[in-house]
Design goal:
Elements: E1 5-8, E2 17-19, E3 35-42, H1 47-50, E4 55-60, H2 73-76, E5 82-83, H3 86-98, E6 104-107, H4 113-122, E7 129-133, H5 139-142, E8 151-154, H6 161-168, H7 173-188, E9 192-193, E10 199-208, H8 214-227, E11 233-237, H9 258-269, E12 274-277
Parallel strand pairs: 4-6, 6-7, 7-8, 8-10, 10-11, 11-12
Antiparallel strand pairs: 1-2, 3-4, 3-5, 9-10
Bound molecules: iron/sulfur cluster.
Length: about 300
């Protein structure tokens, strides 16, 4: 079991930091053992991920990004959660599977990649494994997950380094995220589905439209169309709510307007990309799960 990591370079922060059982000296501050804040069925992912029974989400604490508008602020920045062993992680995976979820959905898992590989090497669930990430990943780290992960669910938040520096404190975000998505698509191939319409394998790239930033969204969509076309699905999200530190940035301290949403949706409609577009009226905090350690 990984109770000590001497020099962590799992993510693009490349801290080279020491990580002990329950705490670490790196950017993410996380220790070597998994820390989770929620392990429960979740109904608000894309229809082919949540289905009727829900997606078996395991929310990991800590994040390698620092998005000022983070919708999961309490677990990413306040580090709320419970430290568990790899065997306990396997227990949560089995419990969710017994509840009939359609997949096991690992949310913000990268700081714990060693434990995740160990868990899925010891126990392989009967449902697909989803890797749900903000997109700030190293392709070489993702290569370690080949044969473990069936479905990748990355964000592509920005193309512009200026935007990613301002809103996520990661100037090199798109440099890493674009290469990471290429590696994900290489591993999964084109989207495949079971007979009931649930996703079996593939990559869904999510993009959250930020207020006052439609130009960024259009750049992201054009990049995805040019680079991947029908090899991926795209999930366009209009449910932004100003959470976290968004009030410090007046231009993003509101929900998006119908005009902003339609402008981006129109561009998406002109491409060969397929996927999902979330209704604008879903811009409500009720869709953000309550991280009250449910299921732990
Ligand atoms: S996972 Fe954490 S400690 Fe490791 S490189 Fe990334 S931020 Fe640093």
């Amino acid at each position: 079991m990984p109770e000590y990591i001497g020099k962590c370079t799992s993510c693009p922060r490349n801290c080279g930091a020491e990580r002990f059982g329950e705490y670490g000296k790196g950017y993410c501050k996380m220790g070597a053992l998994p820390k989770i804040s929620r392990a429960a069925p979740h109904m608000w992912e894309e229809p082919c991920i949540s289905g009727k029974n829900g997606s078996g989400t395991i929310f990991f604490t800590g994040c390698v990004l620092s998005c000022v508008f983070c919708q999961n602020y309490s677990i990413s920045s306040e580090n709320k959660g419970k430290v568990i062993t790899v065997d306990e992680l396997i227990g949560h995976i089995k419990r969710l599977e017994d509840m009939g979820v359609h997949n096991i959905n690992l949310v913000s898992p990268t700081p714990y990649i060693e434990s995740i590989i160990e868990a899925f090497t010891k126990y392989r669930p009967s449902v697909p494994v989803v890797y749900n990430t903000g997109g700030y990943e190293k392709a070489e780290t993702l290569r370690l997950l080949e044969g473990i992960v069936d479905i990748y669910l990355p964000d592509l938040k920005y193309i512009s380094p200026e935007k990613s520096r301002k809103y996520s404190l990661a100037e090199n975000y798109s440099e890493y995220a674009c290469e990471a998505i290429k590696e994900m698509v290489r591993q999964t191939g084109s989207p495949e589905f079971f007979e009931d319409g649930m996703m079996k394998k593939g990559t869904i790239v999510r993009h959250l439209i930020l207020p006052s930033n439609t130009k960024n969204s259009i750049e992201v969509i054009r990049y995805l169309d040019r680079t991947f076309g029908d090899k991926i699905l795209v999930s366009l999200m209009g449910q932004y709510v100003p959470e976290g530190r968004a009030k410090e940035f007046p231009e993003i301290n509101r929900t998006i307007t119908a005009r902003e949403y339609e402008k981006v949706l129109d561009v998406l409609g002109q491409t060969s990309l397929d996927g999902f577009a979330q209704e604008l009226d879903s811009a409500m905090s009720k869709y953000i799960p309550d991280f009250s350690l449910e299921g732990l």
